[in-house]
Structure formats: structure tokens, C-alpha cells
Amino acid sequence: MKQLLYLFIVLFFNQLHSQTVFVQTIYKSIPPQEFSLEKNDFNFDLKEGILLKKNSQDNVESKYYIEFKKEFYDADNNFYFVEYKTDFKKHNQNLGSKSDVGIFTIMYDKKDGTVLTVILNFLEADGAALYLTEKGEESPKVKSLFE
Q: Of 1, 56, 136, 141, which has the fewest Cβ atoms less than 10 A away?
């Protein structure tokens, strides 16, 4: 009985923990530009369906309404991706801007691994914005994907 209670507690707190993904990035690029220093904090609140992006240097915060789209494994490069898309119901209820509609992707080194990159791909933008974490910047394989 104790083991069952322990298992329930572990699963409950794991579920609570997995509701939020917090990522700090240090480099940004919108190809074909090279990566430049730009610190950003991303808070994927999956329970509320909100992505908050905060530029640490100028303190500008952006809010996006998101919902899960898909997750997949890139067998060629051994990376794991989790994609979210704009939650149109919440976006429209909150009078979101058309320029905030897009796909929001987290790239990991493996499933449940270390975050390497956050990718924001807005429908009205000329290209995807790439944000590298420190681990992503250290990996030549990651940077070569975006060259």
C-alpha cells in the first residue's frame, strides 16, 4: 500500500512539473543572418496554453496562446522535437495579433533531454527565428542544421 501511495505521489508531482517548460537562450538568428548574442527566457505553460517570451536585455515580454501539435524524432540527426501551434480559440478571444500566429518548437538532444533550441516560426515572418541555449550553441551539429 505504501508503494502504491509513493508511486501516486511521484506521478502526481511529475505531472505538475511537466506542465511548464522553462528555457533560457543566449543566441538568436533569423537566417540567413548569423547568430548574435541575445538573451531570452521562454516559459511554456502547457496547463494554461501560454508561451511567454521575455527578452532579458530590453525587458520586452511577448505572450502567445499555444496548444500541442506533435512530437517527433529526427532519426538523421538524433534530435527530438516538440511542436506547439497557435491556439486560435484563445488567440481570438484575447484579440491576438495576426503576426503572433505560428508554430513554436522546442528541440532537445533526446526525448526528456536537454533543450538545445527554441524555434518560433510565424506565418507572416520571412523566416523562422532560432534561439540557441548554451548547450545548443556548444554543439557544431546543432548550428550546422541552420546554416
A: 1
Tally of domains within the chain: 1
Q: Which domain holds residue 137?
A: 20-145
Mean pLDDT by 10 residues, the chain (147 residues): 51 55 94 90 96 95 97 90 96 92 97 95 94 94 81
Whether 2 maps to a domain, the answer reads no
Cβ contact 109:116 at 8 Å? yes
Bond preceding residue 32 cis, omega within 30 of 0 = yes
